[in-house]
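[audit] Reproducing an earlier prediction to check determinism. Same input, same settings, fresh worker. If the tokens differ from the archived copy the diff job will pick it up downstream; this log only records the rerun itself.
[audit] input (288 residues):
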Amino acid sequence: MKNPFKTLLMAVLPALPLWLSAQTDVSLFWRSDSVQLSEISVADGDQYRRIGHHGPAIENMYMALRIYFNHSGSIDVYSKKQPQLELATAHWYPTDAMQAAGYGCDEYKVGSTVGLGGYNLWDGEQIVKLTATEGRDVSVRKIKGGAVAEMLAKGVPYGEKKVDILIRVTMKDHERWAIVEAFAKKGGKVQFVTGVNFHPGKQAFTDQGHIAVWGRHPEDVSKNPINIGGGMVYKQRTVAQKKLTDDAVLIISRPTKHYKTKVVSAGEKEADLNTADKFIQYVQQLKY
């Protein structure tokens, strides 16, 4: 008679090294010296070209996200081939040799959109970018069971007032999704705009609470473009308007000081969620 404990142990042992190892990481540095920092605060709100990977970055075993250090409010994705941490060595841009050895790379194109779960504002008629007239702060940190990356845009013109807007990305150990939040820290309630961008030829699924997009990203980003999935889960009752544009599915919130979604990404080079059907099914079952 088989020993059930021994059978369970034999099934679990191969996964133990992955389970016990570090599951999340963060990265923030000036390109001039590559020294890792926990925070950067500047009066000039656009440091996109001076900051490593263009802004604070955070990763789990399946993807990395970066918040652009400029007015865009965009979040970009680094796609992986296999579950592992890569920011510390790849710095978002792995060499060809590293990619041949199993590293992922920057396959995702954000363009002028919010990317995967980034944030802008809505003034009732149009999108308002996060132009920081009073400076911009970014930070990264490890927390118990995960990691956090943040960007605070100060003095953003919004109607007849100025607001401070904080974007926070939180990743949890042993999970492949990320929580993305926006806070109006000063200036009262606002309407946030978030969503998932896409490119021609995409496959898409949306319902009241889920967005899933799968498709190939343009050749100007990658030497070998691949199909990438972008997914989001949100609370339907928080939505004032849902818009489909030429390049994104957008969510416009009701007036609020805090908004939260859950986002996830996967690519065709990985072993699990590597087709449109698999990815869309995964997003459909995700809970808020």
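[audit] rerun output stored. Observation attached for the diff report: The mean pLDDT is 92.
[audit] end
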